[in-house]
Structures are given as C-alpha cells and as structure tokens.
Amino acid sequence: MVMGRPRSFDTDKALEEAMEVFWRHGYDGASLAMLTKAMGIKPPSLYAAFGSKEGLLKAALDRYAQRRSEHMRFVLAGATARDVAERFLGSIAESHTDPANPPGCLLVQGGLACGAGSENIPFELATRRAQTETELRERFLQAKQTGDLPAEADPAALARFLSTVASGMGVLASSGADREALREVARVSLQAFTGSRSP
Q: What is the number of other CB atoms lying within 10 angstroms of the CB of residue 16?
C-alpha cells in the first residue's frame, strides 16, 4: 500500500493566514490567489487539505470560534446580567479595534457581499453568530430565574439586542470607526439594556 505524501505545510499557521484574508476581504473578495499566497501553498495543496474554498472558510471559522469561545467564557462569567452585557459590549469595542487583527468581526465581514455560487456563506456565518446569541439568552434566562432580571424581562429579546448591536459595531469598525466611537455605542446600548430590565 502506497502512503500519501505528508502535508508539507503548517496547517495552524496556514489557517491563521487564511482567516486574516477572509476577514479583510470577505468570502467573495478573497481570491484563491490571495489565499494560497498568504498560506504559502499551491492550489492543489489547498484542495487536498480543505476540499474547497468553502471548506477552507469553515476551517478558518472553526479556528476563529476558539477565540470567540475564550471571549464568551469571560463575558458569561459576569456576576449579573448587566455585568454580562457590559463585558460583552466592552470587549467587542476592544477586539474589533485591536491593531493585531483586521478591523471588525470575521463573522460579519466574511459575508457582507456574496454573489452567485456563494449564497450559503451568509447563512453559515449567521448560524455561527446565532451561537453567541444563544449563549447570552441562556445566561439571561438564568438571571431571570434567580431574580437578577425582573419577571417580565425577555431573555431572548435582550440577547438579540446585544447581538445586533455587536454586529453593527463590527460594521462600524470595518468602516474605520475607532475604539472610542465603539465604546460610545457600547455605553449608549448599555443604558438601553439597563433601562429595558428595570421593574
């Protein structure tokens, strides 16, 4: 039996590079030439490792999800629902303007403009964004059960509100808004969140 040739590139490093290309240019804007150049590989290696451009995006999103998982652990550890909202929006303002990364959010940037042949990409990204909303909703449901949120509070609506604000902050950051501008959005949104949960 003939063994296949071992993969001759660092998959983790290649995924980091691909993630940045998708983040900066979106799915449609990220050409195979851009991706393979950034990853330091040839197209046959990309297809052998990831199956397709869409397969590469999903692998990059899985890697991005690891970062978001760490972020959400911090957010959900807030002592109160308000603390959770403050951590969530505050950390979004910081991360979306971190000079170490492209501006904005990959889960927003990746699918802002998708043409024929990539119509399912926005749905893939939306599904992944929905996971964050689900985690927030479950945390706010817990807050309601313990009396931290009033009986009439709607955990799903509160989670949807924060998720929508976060997506908007991502678009602002990708359009050049600075950290202070995003912090201002976070402050105003937190006031609205706090008002929505008042008895």
A: 15
Q: 67-101 burial, b if ≥16 CB within 10 A, otherwise e?
A: ebeebbeebbebeebbebbbbbbbbbbebbbeeeb
Are 51 and 13 in contact by the 8 Å Cβ rule? The answer is no
Residues contacting residue 31 through CB under 8 Å, at least 6 positions apart = none
Question: What pLDDT, in 10s, does the model give residues 81-140?
Answer: 999 999 999 999 999 999 988 888 888 776 655 554 566 787 888 888 899 999 999 999
Residue 114 DSSP one-character state: -
pTM (predicted TM-score)? 0.83
In which residue are the tokens 């479950």 written? 138
Residue type, 106: L
**Who contacts 116 (Cβ-Cβ below 8 Å, separation ≥6)?**
none
Gyration radius of the chain's alpha carbons:
19
Mean pLDDT of the chain: 87
Please answer whether residues 104 and 147 qualify as being in contact, where contact means their C-beta atoms are separated by less than 8 angstroms: no
Q: What percent of the chain has pLDDT over 70?
A: 88
Q: Which residue has the tokens 């980091």?
A: 16
Count Cα atoms within 13 angstroms, Cβ side, for 117. Answer: 5
